[in-house]
Amino acid sequence: MTLTFEDFPPGHFGTFGPRRVTREEILAFAAEFDPQPMHLDEAAAAKSMLKGLSASGWHLCSITMRMMFDGYIGRTASLGSPGVNELRWLAPLRPGDDLTLDIEVMEARVSRSRPSTGIVTFKALVRNAAGQLLCEMVSPIIVERRAGAAEQAG
Questions:
Q1: Taking the C-alpha atoms of 56, 61, 63 and 67 in order, what is their torsion angle to the nearest 10 degrees?
Q2: Tell me: the pLDDT tens digits for 77-127?
């Protein structure tokens, strides 16, 4: 079943995961996209403010996007996103962490310019197995409404 705008009332939407993150994937991502020492080298990472090897925040965002896609976006009538409103990295992602994603619908409103669509604003909270909050992201997506919904409302 494809999820439409009407399937996203404000409130808790779902919890997804866990998803384990390996040392190897942290090193591979960092080598290609964010080759800072705290993401690539154990000794340098130990001396950094992160106090140990940690994934790039951009790696955490990429994993979060994949978890969102697998959890619900892949079966949503999504037309894309205008961007990210807020993004905070709150604690380091470590090798071996098991990530859990909580999704909350913060707002769902019908588009004024295209009433056949709605804008759903999601808050994503990513935690490790200890429950520590690693990342918080707020982003809207544009979602198709159910067939006939715009006509019924108008």
A1: 160
A2: 999 999 999 999 999 999 999 999 999 999 999 999 999 999 999 999 999
Cα gap 52→55, rounded to integer Å: 10
d(CA 16, CA 71): 6
CA distance 61 to 51: 21
Please report which residue ranges of the chain form alpha helices under DSSP H.
23-33, 37-40, 42-47, 57-71, 149-153
Beta carbons of 14 and 71 less than 8 angstroms apart? yes
**CATH number belonging to domain 5-153:** 3.10.129.10
User: Which residue carries 């090897």 as its tokens?
Assistant: 53
Residues with Cβ within 8 Å of 130's Cβ and at least 6 positions away in sequence, in order, are none
- Both structure tokens of 66: 């994949």
Report the C-alpha gap between 142 and 86 in whole angstroms. Answer: 17
Q: Where are the domains of the chain?
A: 5-153
Residue 147's pLDDT band, with cuts at 50, 70 and 90, is confident
Length of the chain: 154
Whole-model pTM: value is 0.93
Read off the pLDDT of each residue in 4-28 and give the average, rounded to a whole number.
98
